[in-house]
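Lab notebook, design round three. We kept the backbone fixed and only want residue identities now. Task for the bench partner: fill in a sequence for the structure below.
Input structure tokens:
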């Protein structure tokens, strides 16, 4: 079984200004997870592609 796919939930505008987001993504990847920042307010967020979602900032 591969690494769990995890969505770190953000917003379209938030991903560009969140200085902590790259650190969070790197730490989770270092922990062996497959992690992606996903904007909840995107036109079609790919929720069905993830096993877990971490809500940090929306």
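Proposed sequence:
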């Amino acid at each position: 079984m591969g690494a769990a796919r995890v969505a770190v939930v953000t917003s379209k505008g938030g991903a560009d200004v969140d200085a902590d987001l790259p650190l969070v993504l790197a730490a989770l990847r270092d922990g062996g997870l497959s992690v992606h920042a996903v904007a909840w307010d995107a036109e079609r967020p790919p929720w069905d592609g993830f096993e877990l979602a971490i809500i940090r900032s929306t």
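Keep this in mind before ordering anything: The chain has one domain: 5-55.
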